[in-house]
Design a protein that fits this description.
The structure holds 2 protein chains of 2 kinds.
Chain A: E1 2-7, H1 13-28, E2 33-38, H2 39-42, E3 49-53, H3 54-60, E4 67-70, H4 76-87
Parallel strand pairs in A: 1-2, 1-3, 3-4
Helix pairs in contact in A: 1-4
Chain B: H1 2-5, E1 11-14, H2 20-34, H3 39-52, E2 57-59, E3 61-63, E4 77-88, E5 96-104, H4 112-123, H5 125-133, H6 137-147
Parallel strand pairs in B: 1-4, 3-5
Antiparallel strand pairs in B: 2-3, 4-5
Amino acid sequence: MKIMIVCGNGLGSSMMLEMTVNSVLKEMGVIAEVGHTDLFSAKGEVADLFVGSHEIMSQLDDGSRQLAGVRNIMDKAEVRAALELKLNQ
Amino acid sequence: MLNEILTPDSIVFKTSCPDWQTAVRESCAPLLARGTIEPAYIDAIIANVIELGPYIVIAPDVAIPHARPEAGALGMGMSLLKLTEPVAFGSEPDEQARMLFAFSAIDSRSHQRALKQLADLIMDEEKFAALAAADSVDAVLALINSVSN
């Protein structure tokens, strides 16, 4: 499974969210390849799930992608709930 | 690491800012003064937020104003603007911030450890509460030092 974290620039918020996602996946016992990128590059990326802030996710939504939007990217409980919702589908 | 790039002269306290654009400019002022960024870098941050929304507010009360290295970053640096009154980046209550950690990076890797340490500080409830309450450079530095190694 490949999870791509997306933010506006691909080097600040996405990197911090990647830390949260990695720590949550470890707790959940899920093995996945996790990377981060900027919104522009994300439009050309293929991944099983894209994770980012709601604003960024709505810009990425073209109907073909699995998206998980989060509000507080440092909140492990919120990130876990968003990931569980998508990964259990 | 974090304490090497977030130095005493880059921590600024202010009561309030009239709008988020002013807050972003004020938060970047120490980086500009140190020659870590060009003025264009600040304009790029503001343009990004206008285009993509307040995604730089990463947690309640915390914003990390930054743009891409090629937008005018000359070196790696971080500064902190600490406001008494929150400034609104959007209409939602969780889109306000009283702590603005502006940073510049020259590639996509070198600042990774400093950001990780900042994340450690934000995710530690006790330390984060102390940071929110800190009203002196020394108090902020003590917390920064506690997550830096």
